[in-house]
Amino acid sequence: MFGWCGRLLQIDLTKRTGFEQSLSPEFCRMFIGGRGMAGCFLKRHVTRAWDDYLMPLLLFTGPLVNTASPTSGRMCIMSRSPLTGTVGDSSVGGSFGTSLKKAGWDGLIITGRSDCLCGIEITDSHWVIRDADHLKGAMTDMVHEECESKGSVLCVGPAAENGVRFSSIMVDRHFAAGRNGLGLVCAGKNLKYITVKGSENTPVHNKTELKAAREQIYRLAAASPVLMGEAGISNRGTGALYDLMDSRCMMPTENFQRTRFSDAARMNAHAYQKKFRPKKDGCKGCHILCKKRGANGEVIPEFETMSHFSALLVNTDIDSIIQANRICNSMGMDTISAAATLACFSEITGNRLTPDRIISLLEDIGLSKGEGRELGKGSAAFADDTGCNSASMSVKAQEIPAYDPRGAYGMALAYAISTRGGALSSQGIPYQP
Ligand code: SF4
User: Do 239 and 164 fall within a single domain?
Assistant: First the structure.
């Protein structure tokens, strides 16, 4: 079989057993791609509660992963969402998907619940479950530090262990499967981390044609000012969209009370460029490299994080946005839902949040302390509990990202009909020329 490995690994954490399952070429073609395959395996369990021990956590790759195809180093993680109650899926970058394919697996299905905190370590066809009690409450950075010699690392932080409904799963330190609270599904299985290392190439039907197609994609990408231009995504990160979204009245400001941010010109990607002199970083095998790291190692936030921690909260302190992004990643929380929940809290309490208050509330959410305990349920539940439902800007209880549908009406339809609620499809940003 070309493109696929033709097998997946299923692990039951309750029994600490696992087995290999073959995938037929017909099945792979019918459900082509990680999201399709994961969806097929989720379908038979979809009436279970998210924390039912039989509810699977699904990690699936597509046929282009671990090939020379550009921007293919991604993976779909899916389960039932603790935040929305519907199908929750997130596309994550880094190198985990590529490493899983290299290890000879198209997908990983994890069921059951371990009786103590544990980790799964996969090296090619071999896998082992290890006790991980010593990592209880550990920040994601610490887990990566301890485990990265074993390959690509995926893990959850204290937010997931403390029941935060918008907990994320962090991959290779800086890549987040952020939306839908999938970190909480992982923690519900008492699973702290997974590592994977592999050494196989994925067979390709026609290497010459794939190479020719890749050259065409490189040529088209090079001609795109949005992707490869001086102020485009490759040079400035997804923050390159900041001015565009503001000028199109798509920048949610002050908890969606306005669609333009008067301070946008000093909070845009250019401001980060001047302050941090970022370098390019990105997913395995990508030539666009849209992720950015500052000269001193600062992780420069993605557009949606930049936008929500500035315009949505009316915050003009760039250092606090860098810090908020770092706290969310270390504790394993979705930056979009975290910022939007704070914006909802700000509207309900009638107090604009100072940069220091934003940081302390984020820490409290991650540790489930004080006001953070209630905010960790997400904005919809928080607003509901306080009798102010309209202050939660969410769809299917998931907070809307930084693309205000009043500037692009089609987005409203996308949010309304998406299985994931207030989220884009996993296909990416809604650029409209
Ligand atoms: S463009 Fe960015 S998100 Fe997409 S594959 Fe490349 S580095 Fe990853």
Answer: no
The answer to whether residues 243 and 148 belong to one domain is no
Q: What is the CATH number of the domain that holds 120?
A: 3.60.9.10
The number of folded domains in the chain is 2
Instruction: Express each pLDDT in 223-232 by its tens digit.
Output: 999 999 999 9
Residues 265, 119: one domain?
no
Instruction: Note the pLDDT of residue 339.
Output: 98
The protein residue with its alpha carbon nearest to ligand 1, atom 4, reads 71
Atom of ligand 1 nearest to the CA of 93: 8
Global pTM?
0.95
* DSSP state for residue 390 in the 8-state scheme: G
**CA–CA separation, 11 and 129 (whole Å):** 9
Q: Do 288 and 174 share a domain, yes or no?
A: no
CB 171 within 8 A of CB 193: no
**CA–centroid distance, residue 252 to ligand 1 (Å):** 24
In angstroms, the CA 106 to CA 384 distance is: 41
Ligand 1 pocket, mutate which of 228, 234, 283 (most atoms under 8 A from CB): 283
CA 245 to chain centre: 21
Range of the domain at 398: 224-417
Q: Is residue 18 part of a domain?
A: yes
Query: Does some domain include residue 381?
Result: yes
* pLDDT tens figures, 30-88: 999 999 999 999 999 989 999 999 999 999 999 999 999 999 999 999 999 999 999 99
pLDDT category of residue 426 using cuts at 50, 70 and 90: very low
Q: Is the CB of 64 under 6 A from ligand 1?
A: no
Select from 347, 348, 364 the least CA-distant residue to 356.
364
